[in-house]
Design a protein that fits this description.
The complex is a heterotrimer of chains A (191), B (289) and C (309). Chain A has ten helices and seven strands. Chain A has 191 residues and is α/β, with parallel strands linked by helices. Chain B has a single domain, classed as ABC transporter involved in vitamin B12 uptake, BtuC (Orthogonal Bundle), CATH 1.10.3470. Chain B contains eleven helices and two strands. In chain B, a hairpin with a 2-residue loop joins strand 1 and strand 2. In chain B, helix 9 packs across helix 11. The N and C termini of chain B lie far apart (37 Å). The relative contact order of chain B is 0.21. Chain C is mainly α and 309 residues long. Chain C has one domain. Chain C has 14 helices and two strands. The mean pLDDT of chain C is 88. Classes of the chains: A alpha/beta (191), B mainly alpha (289), C mainly alpha (309). Chains in contact: A-B, B-C. At the B-C interface, helix 4, helix 9 and helix 11 of B face helix 5, helix 11 and helix 13 of C.
Chain lengths: 191, 289, 309
């Protein structure tokens, strides 16, 4: 959906248009922003610079000052460390920068690919709370996650994929109770 | 002792031009992993451009920079769109290899064209200052070369500012580090690449102008300057713009030392040996990351 | 590319060379013999370069250094009284020895770095020789009196044929297949137990042996030249161009490229001295971008098109 890989068939409909042929950077301009797996930050640049680059597209640039305030409000530690080179930050803090950078792009749909990977549990919940806050602010959030409990407790709608196919869908709360889900992800003794 | 000092100073003066020559090549290689070995030929073209502008329009040689650099920028855009833009579609290792080959073909074509258009003779450009020399103690500093060093340093400083303060300069650095992440941030990486290549060619044109002003130009300086630029890049690594400039100074001084110790003809050998040794022992270079 | 196809080409080219052996019997003018000599020398240079590039997959930009070493040693010994055959053999031995020493260090570099590293090494050789031996090397009068062009001609023929046979043998052999495996994917080849370094060194040894012999031939052929001249990078670049444009990695590619190159150079030199370089430069770019297999690949595509009618 982010445009790095082109679909072989089918269409991606957004806002009345098909995204399948649109360039990746234009997709960002249209409001779909991806926080990729592994964060993919510009590690040789500072936190500030990474955030600033997030607001590259014209629409995002116009909203940049407010976006930045919102990011610092969500992740206060970034305001303290804004002049630091990203490489010097911890994994969890880097993930905050990654989410922050995506927010700077003024997304209407924020997509995240495995944001909890390699991050201390305490920070994971902080980030997930931030995602809930972002969503309350009017941004749709598409989360791809292996951390089932955390993500299902957050999600309004959830889809379970196995082997590339959607095998279950429903509200987050309902799926948390679903026996198939519980057994597959929470262990054979779960009931 | 003062002979050595004089040689070292002259080495520094040309070293600045080596640094400028390398900066353009290094920018392009660092950003998109394209090794344009025709860079020396672009320097040569810049030199001829300056020569013709001065000869035809009678302007001051240093002022010709004001025309050569924009022309170089434009040429860079054309070369990227027509040629090197196709190379970046492949992965990194293929990019380097293909750009090496394409640069080679381009160098050949440009060299043959230059010989046809302007003959193989050396050309140089007279400046109002002529052979004026600044005397500092026992040392004589040719004013023209001193001015060239100053201009080279100034251009490097401008490049540094562009890359660190300008929105698109930062975009270029972002694309250099991770082009996919750059795309995801909304940066049009293709445009960033065009910009980087244009800047690289513009710098080459500037370097060529300064070379013509301080020394001379002929079609054969292409290969020589491509090698110098490569040596400096390997010496200094790609992390820092000023680092590359310093690398150029180091090469200039190393050459002077070698000429002083082993005799004039061995000037070149120092740089080449240094090159091979660093290539094998520390490929990242002195300042590289 | 089937081995049968290549065998056909091998036989064809060798037959053409055999026919050329009869040329001196027709008592042609000296410039005709010289022209064919240049083609034969070019074939040898291109084919020898092809061994490292086409089989081991490395772009060796230092090829001229071995050509030059072969020439230097052979010339020095020959003028000193040694028979040319021994001189050429010694030249080749020196070239291969240097190649192996350099190769061990150079092959630690990958891809483009190997290319520019070997170029720098060759330039070191050239600069040193040009400083140590700046004067032109001329044959003593007695030798000039006894100069027979036909001897050089046959030597060139033999060398060209040898280079073709070497490449033909490599093509089908285990050695050659191992080299091609490295060319295609060095890590995978290593993982399958193919000793990459040893194979690359073997390719380099074969390549530089032929180049060294060609250098000896050059020393035997020219009455006077600057000792640094055969070290000039243009010998490498010419071989590279001929091989790529003909079709790197194929048997007939370098031969076709060499013939085309020399013919174009000879017949276009009238109007514009280096126009053959401009044309070849442009062709080369086109080939790198669109047709990596060179003219051989182009011919195959044409053949496939006409066959499918």
């Amino acid at each position: 959906m982010a445009g790095l890989v082109r679909p072989r068939a089918g269409a991606i409909r957004w806002d009345g248009g098909d995204l399948a042929r649109v360039h990746a950077h234009d997709i960002v301009a249209r409001g779909l922003v991806l926080v990729p797996e592994g964060r993919r930050l510009f590690t040789s640049l500072t936190v500030e610079e990474n955030l600033e680059l997030g607001a590259f597209s014209p629409r995002a640039r116009a909203a940049a000052p407010e976006s930045r305030e919102r990011v610092y409000a969500l992740f206060p530690v970034l305001r303290e460390r804004r002049r630091q080179i990203v490489r010097a930050l911890s994994g969890g803090q880097q993930q905050m920068v990654a989410v922050g950078r995506a927010l700077m792009s003024a997304p209407r749909l924020l997509m995240l690919d495995e944001p909890s990977l390699g991050i201390a549990p305490r920070l994971v919940s902080a980030i997930f709370e931030a995602l809930a806050e972002i969503n309350r602010g009017g941004v749709a959030v598409l989360l791809v996650e292996q951390n089932v409990p955390a993500s299902l407790s957050l999600a309004h709608r959830a889809y379970v994929m196995e082997g590339g196919r959607i095998v279950r869908e429903g509200t987050g709360a309902a799926l948390l109770q679903d026996p198939h889900v519980r057994r597959a992800y929470l262990g054979p003794l779960a009931r | 002792m003062s002979v050595l000092a004089q040689q070292l100073v002259l080495g520094l003066l040309i070293g600045g031009l080596y640094g400028l020559a390398a900066a353009g090549l290094g920018l392009v290689f660092g950003v998109m992993k394209v090794l344009n070995v025709a860079h020396g030929e672009l320097i040569m073209l810049g030199g001829y451009g300056a020569f013709w502008l001065v000869t035809l329009l009678g302007i001051d040689p240093f002022a010709s920079l004001g025309l050569v650099v924009p022309l170089g920028l434009a040429l860079g855009v054309i070369l990227y769109v027509a040629l090197f833009g196709f190379v970046v579609r492949a992965d990194e290792e293929t990019r380097v290899k293909n750009s090496l080959l394409i640069g080679f073909g381009l160098a050949l074509a440009l060299h043959a064209t230059a010989v046809r258009l302007w003959t193989a003779d050396e050309r140089s450009v007279p400046t109002p200052w002529g052979g004026a020399v600044l005397s500092v103690g026992n040392l004589s500093l040719p004013v023209v070369r001193l001015a060239s060093l100053g201009v080279a340093l100034g251009l490097i400083a401008i490049l540094h500012l562009l890359l660190t303060r300008w929105r698109w300069g930062k975009a270029v650095r972002a694309a250099a580090e991770d082009w996919q992440a750059a795309l995801l941030t909304g940066i049009d990486v293709r445009r960033a690449y065009v910009l980087a290549f244009a800047l690289g060619t513009g710098l080459a044109g500037a370097a060529g102008t300064l070379v013509t002003i301080s020394y001379s130009v002929s079609p054969s300086i292409g290969l020589e300057w491509s090698l110098k630029a490569l040596i400096v890049i390997v010496l200094a690594g790609l992390g820092s713009t000023f680092g590359i400039f310093v690398g150029g100074l180091v090469l200039g001084v190393a050459e002077a030392l070698s000429a002083f110790t082993f005799g004039g003809p061995y000037r070149e050998v120092a740089g080449l040996v240094l090159f091979v040794v660093i290539l094998v022992a520390r490929p990242r270079g002195l300042f590289g990351r | 590319m089937t081995t049968g196809h290549e065998r056909a080409w091998t036989i064809g080219i060798l037959a053409a060379l055999a026919a050329l052996a009869l040329l001196p019997l027709a008592k042609p003018r000296d410039d005709t013999l010289n022209f064919v000599f240049v083609i034969l020398l070019s074939i040898t240079m291109a084919q020898s370069w092809n061994i490292v590039a086409g089989f081991a997959g490395q772009v060796n930009l230092g090829h001229a250094a071995f050509f030059g070493l072969g020439a230097l040693v052979a010339r020095t010994l020959w003028i000193g009284g040694t028979p040319i055959a021994a001189g050429m053999a010694a030249g080749t031995a020196v070239a291969v020895a240097f190649a192996l020493v350099i190769g061990v260090a150079a092959f630690r570099l990958r891809g483009a770095y190997f290319a520019i590293g070997t170029l720098a090494l060759a330039e070191i050789f050239r600069t040193t020789v040009s400083n140590v031996l700046p004067e032109i090397s001329t044959l003593p009068v007695a030798a000039i009196g006894g100069y027979r062009l036909t001897h050089r001609y046959y030597l060139a023929l033999g060398l060209a044929a040898a280079s073709i046979v070497v490449v033909a043998e490599l093509s089908g052999s285990r050695l050659g297949l191992g080299m091609q495996a490295i060319r295609d994917d060095e890590e995978a080849a290593e993982a399958s137990g193919i000793g990459a370094v040893r194979l690359k060194l073997t390719a380099l040894a074969l390549s530089t042996a032929l180049a060294g012999l060609a250098g000896g031939l050059f020393a035997y052929y020219h009455i006077s030249y600057y000792p640094a001249h055969p070290f000039s990078p243009h010998w490498t670049f010419d071989a590279l161009l001929m091989t790529f444009i003909g079709g790197v990695g194929t048997l007939q590619g370098p031969v076709l490229g060499a013939v085309l190159y020399v013919v174009l150079k000879e017949y276009l030199a009238l109007r514009w001295v280096d126009i053959h370089l401009l044309i070849f430069g442009a062709l080369f770019i086109a080939i790198v971008l669109a047709l990596p297999g060179g003219l051989v690949q182009a011919a195959e595509r044409v053949r496939a098109l006409t066959r499918s009618r």
